[in-house]
Write a structure and sequence with these properties.
Blueprint lengths: L17 H14 L16 H7 L10 E3 L2 E8 L5 E4 L2 E9 L2 E6 L1 E2 L3 E4 L2 E4 L2 E2 L2 E5 L4 E4 L4 E6 L4 E9 L2 H4 L2
Antiparallel strand pairs: 1-2, 2-13, 3-8, 4-11, 4-13, 5-10, 5-12, 6-9, 7-8
Length: 171
């Protein structure tokens, strides 16, 4: 169902690239904010132990930072996700704990719109898969069908959401 033939060792992100990617994700979030003076983002430090504690309960914590074009939150999954796509938001995930198979692609079966620009589907068709582990980073552009299939009891991750450029969202 999924084609992994183009995955090769040279396409796998190496740990030495993580600081660069984290900086790019942060820059993407900051450039998505047209007016920093109005942003409700303040300095915060959250240790790995504190982030684990913050997602220990049944309810996900509120966003660590957000404005109309950007959000950053800590998330935990104990069950696989459904097939979904978001037309207005890019998603960037930094896996902190667990193993997850990310399926992604351009089309899905049984598509239904659940809200403006938000869609669920039955299954991804003609997609690809990538296995993710703690330390891995993935960028899911707006309009991309995706689902996370847990391969461990829990997946803990940092979720960045950046508003899709309005001129590109209509493509």
């Amino acid at each position: 169902m999924y084609d992994n033939s183009d995955e090769s060792e040279d396409k796998i992100m190496k740990p030495q690239h993580y600081p660069l990617i984290a900086g790019l994700l942060l820059a993407a979030g900051l450039t998505a904010m047209p007016n920093l003076a109005q942003a409700d983002i303040t300095f915060k430090f959250v240790s790995n132990d504190a982030s684990r504690t913050m997602v220990a309960g049944a309810k996900a914590p509120d966003s660590l930072a957000q404005d109309p074009n950007f959000s950053m939150s800590l998330r935990k999954r104990e069950a696989s996700s459904h097939v979904e796509k978001h037309m207005g938001w890019n998603e960037e995930l930094v896996i902190q704990e667990g193993d997850v198979l990310l399926n992604y692609g351009d089309s899905a079966t049984n598509v239904r719109e659940i809200g403006p620009g938000e869609f669920n589907g039955g299954a991804i068709t003609g997609g690809k898969s990538v296995m993710m582990h703690a330390g891995d980073i993935v960028i899911i552009p707006a309009g991309t069908w995706h689902e996370e299939v847990l391969r461990s009891p829990v997946m803990r991750y940092i979720l960045f959401k950046t508003r899709e450029n309005s001129s590109a969202a209509g493509k």
